[in-house]
Specification:
Length: 432
């Protein structure tokens, strides 16, 4: 580009009063006050006020400013002057403007006074993402993913990338999307579970932040068909070690969000987090006793549904673990507790009534794994490739899968997962 930016909007501060600056960005808002024309220019750092005075501006500059539509991309030059009324205490007195490309009138309001409904916003998602709230949400997401990576690197985990086109179900469930793979049928991966487990025998500690696909029939505020999953797996660890790791991970994320994202939390009407660690742990059997006391019915030895979890969240706020689930309610790879085989070394990390992550100690003995597959109604022959690795030194291991969007719901305070995924996919939506 031939015009070079000298400053970002956020760098226009009283410290550089009197300087000549060149700014690049989008026309966020425009206001005419008689002989004064105010613009708000937006770039990746935020907004800055720019002003032109009819008396002193060249006529062609004044004209250019009157015809420019919001969301046009501009280069402009001017001088930084103090202005007590301007949000930054200074403004740019514009000397020249060069529209780089013009915009049509935006289809949704970006300035945020009247907010379109979510479906309309998602239809125009790229425009919607210019609003301050989605900007805040995805900046929080960036803090979260970078905290996750740095925490896991510091703990000896290496980042891996496993295939997303696979030949058999991972979780044994029915929620698979099928795809044509040349002349065969294949599936989109629901989870890197089997790969991450096998990889512990080569690298001990691995993690992946990647897509997972779930053909979910349920149309809820917390389920999507394509999600980003944070999968972590470590050799020579059990579920207590992994819950300890998650304690450390959540602590690091919250610390970084509190430190780096004060503006974003404010934009979302959120306070900084104060959380006590370690996070509370409650067993499945303790949960069902609470439900019994409250007179709430649940499926015996089964998963906990929304009604049950909402009732529980009246007692337990914020982040906590539910541990020691019934073996029959968990996937085949979860390790039964020795001497109490109807319960397994497993947990869910919760935030209020929303499940954020599941994890477990895994079975690393092939014959036990085969038995568990059969008792869950699965055919071990379908898992031939996976079972093969268990003959060659599969270490004891444990891990978890954390739904990134669910965590972002917790941190941003949004109750619809579609708000915190840039391009959500559900039963109805395959665009944009
Ligand atoms: P699970 O199936 O419980 O476990 O998924 C782990 C986490 O992923 C998130 N999640 C979803 N988020 C949005 N929409 C969905 N449709 C959806 N499905 C799951 C949730 C959930 O807690 N292999 C195991 C993990 C493990 O044991 O390591 C697994 O996939 O936050």
């Amino acid at each position: 580009m031939e015009i070079k930016r000298t400053h970002l909007a956020a760098e226009i501060t009283p410290k550089i009063e009197g300087s000549e600056v060149v700014l690049l960005g989008w026309l966020h808002e425009k206001r005419d006050l008689g002989g004064l024309r105010f613009l708000l220019l937006r770039d990746r750092s935020g907004l800055v006020q720019v002003v032109a005075n009819k008396k002193t501006a060249q006529p062609d500059l004044w004209e250019a400013l009157s015809s420019i539509k919001r969301e046009s991309v501009l280069a402009l030059g001017g001088v930084v002057k103090s202005s007590p009324q301007a949000p930054r205490g200074v403004e740019v007195r514009v000397k020249w403007v060069k529209p780089l490309i013009s915009s049509e009138d935006p289809p949704i309001d970006i300035v945020g006074k009247t907010q379109a409904d979510l479906d309309t916003r998602l239809d125009y998602r790229i425009i919607d993402l210019r609003r301050s709230e989605p900007q805040a949400i995805f900046k929080l997401q960036n803090t979260i993913t970078s905290a996750i990576r740095s925490f896991l690197y510091d703990n000896g985990f290496i980042e891996v990338f496993t295939p997303k086109i696979i030949s058999t179900a991972t979780e044994g469930g029915a929620s698979l999307f099928s795809v044509f793979y040349y002349d065969r049928l294949a599936y989109l991966s629901q989870s890197p579970q089997l790969y991450k487990e096998a990889l512990t025998s080569a690298f001990e500690r691995v993690f992946e932040i990647g897509p997972a696909f779930r053909a979910e029939e349920s149309d809820t505020l917390r389920h999507l068909s394509e999600i980003t999953m944070v999968d972590v797996e470590g050799a020579f660890m059990d579920y207590n070690d992994v819950m300890g790791l998650l304690d450390g991970l959540i602590k690091k994320i919250i610390m970084n969000v509190n430190q780096n994202n004060a503006d974003e939390l404010k934009a979302l009407g959120r306070d900084k987090f104060t959380i006590n660690f370690p996070l509370p742990r409650i067993t499945y059997d303790q949960v069902t006793s609470i439900l019994d006391e409250k007179g709430i019915s649940y499926e015996k030895e089964g998963d906990l549904g929304t009604v049950e979890l909402k009732a529980l969240s009246e007692e337990l706020k914020g982040f906590y673990f539910i541990t020691d689930w019934p073996t029959k309610a968990r996937p085949f790879y979860a390790m039964p507790i020795k001497g109490k085989e109807d319960r397994c070394e497993s947990f869910d990390l919760m935030y209020g009534w929303i499940e954020l992550a599941s994890g477990a100690t895994r079975i690393n003995d092939e014959s036990i794994l085969r038995t568990r597959m059969t008792s869950q109604g699965l055919n071990p022959d379908a898992f031939k490739t996976h079972l093969k690795w268990f003959k060659y030194g599969m270490p004891p291991h444990a891990g978890f899968g954390l739904g990134l969007a669910r965590l972002l719901m917790a941190v941003s305070g949004k109750d619809n997962i579609r708000e915190v995924v840039m391009f959500p996919r559900d039963k109805r939506r395959l665009e944009p």
